[in-house]
Amino acid sequence: MFLPQFDAGLYGQLRRNAGSVWQSYVCHDFVQQLGTGTLPHHAFRHYLTQDYLFLIHFARAYALLVSKFSTLPEMRAATTSLNAIVNELPLHVAYCQQWGLNESKMEQVEEAAETMNYTRYVLDIGHRGDALDLLAALMPCVAGYAEIGLRLLNDPNTVLEGNPYADWIRNYGDQAYLRGVQSSLDLLEKVAHQRGGESRLAELNTIFNTATRLEAAFWQMGLDAPAQ
């Protein structure tokens, strides 16, 4: 089984330096309730709708990342991730339909403050910083979801049989997905070597930690959704 190298390189440093901030994200109550199948359905539906809106802006962030590069190999690597998100959207919509959500309705839903805060922060980092800054803001989502999926799949407290969220959990342990995550980690490492990642660690830590806190707030947004 292929596993991304979460502990290696710059990403490993950023993840370790995030400490309790990282743990509050990957071990959030929303995540734990997904694993046990006890998450209220209305909370998950709210999360799915906001995640649809989030993915649109995440694709914009990767399009911005492409423009930050000047060599074809780097542009191709960023474009691969962009295409993966764009191609994921129809799959996300199809999954949402299983929960009674259709694309036209999700498009009309107002963005939650947490969605706006997170996506606009990432885009702002991309506009005012370079490719390394933007990658540091993107990685908590890209690699964090893989870590969460693998944690749940290997957690003895996770219940898959009869769990309505089992397909969601399995999706983030998919081998193709995990290899894509490693490609993003490899790109981060390459760009860090080129653009003085070690000398910029304090700034990159701040970006990574802020994005991680915004990820945890996104989970909390789902958990706090009012019953409908």
UniProtKB/TrEMBL annotation:
Q: What reaction does this enzyme carry out catalytically?
A: 4-amino-5-aminomethyl-2-methylpyrimidine + H2O = 4-amino-5-hydroxymethyl-2-methylpyrimidine + NH4(+); thiamine + H2O = 5-(2-hydroxyethyl)-4-methylthiazole + 4-amino-5-hydroxymethyl-2-methylpyrimidine + H(+)
What Pfam families does the record point to? TENA_THI-4
Q: Which residues form the Thiaminase-2/PQQC domain?
A: 18-224
User: What keywords are assigned to this protein?
Assistant: Hydrolase, Thiamine biosynthesis
| Pathway in which this enzyme or protein is active | Cofactor biosynthesis; thiamine diphosphate biosynthesis
**Which positions make up the signal peptide?**
none
- InterPro entries recorded for this chain? Haem_Oase-like_multi-hlx, Thiaminase-2/PQQC, Thiaminase_II, Thiamine_Salvage_TenA
Q: What EC numbers are recorded for this enzyme?
A: 3.5.99.2
Q: Does the keyword Hydrolase apply?
A: yes
Say if the entry is tagged with keyword Hydrolase.
Answer: yes
Q: Which CDD domains match?
A: TenA_C_ScTHI20-like
| Functional note | Catalyzes an amino-pyrimidine hydrolysis reaction at the C5' of the pyrimidine moiety of thiamine compounds, a reaction that is part of a thiamine salvage pathway.
PANTHER family found in the cross-reference section = BIFUNCTIONAL TH2 PROTEIN, SI:CH1073-67J19.1-RELATED
Q: Which family does it belong to?
A: Belongs to the TenA family.
**What is the protein's name according to its record?**
Aminopyrimidine aminohydrolase
Q: Which organism is it from?
A: Candidatus Pantoea multigeneris
What gene does the UniProt entry assign to this protein?
Answer: tenA
